Amino acid sequence: MQRFQSMFQYFWAKLPVALPLSYFTISAEQTLIVTGLAFMVFIDTILGLWVSYKFRIFTSHRLGRIADKISKYFLALASIWILVCVNELLFSWAFQFVGIFLILTELFSNFEKLSLLGLEVPTKFLAKLNKNFHEYYFGDSESREGAIKRILDKQNCPPITRRGK
Q1: Hey, is 57 helix, strand or coil?
Q2: Can you tell me the mean pLDDT for 97-113?
Q3: In whole angstroms, what is the distance from residue 141 CA to residue 147 CA?
């Protein structure tokens, strides 16, 4: 009986802590996906800074998109993680699927930036998927400049609208 008393000694203090902590268990596979995604976002940030330096397009908005991207990725993975916690048997695949999808999104973004920096292999690959990169890779100097502008505009902030007009 003494053994059970010691187990229930701080029951009301342990209960509110134990329930939320039981949901904060992350599997090794989920940790790998989050780590991989964080590494891809880091590489994307470095490449984005490099492209900004090369084409002289530094803006605070472009740099502020990093926090926006990280928060959206966090919310997406947290939402899926909660779904997996609720019913792991039914949704065990969901976290991996969404995580790999986000990693592939970052991979294509990194390929776009590497192409703009002059690496040939991603440019050939993207030329098959994207009209602007096709013009960038196969076009003459004038169409190449136009393609670079369209690619950078796609990655830039939305058009500025004037208030009060």
Answers
A1: coil
A2: 95
A3: 10
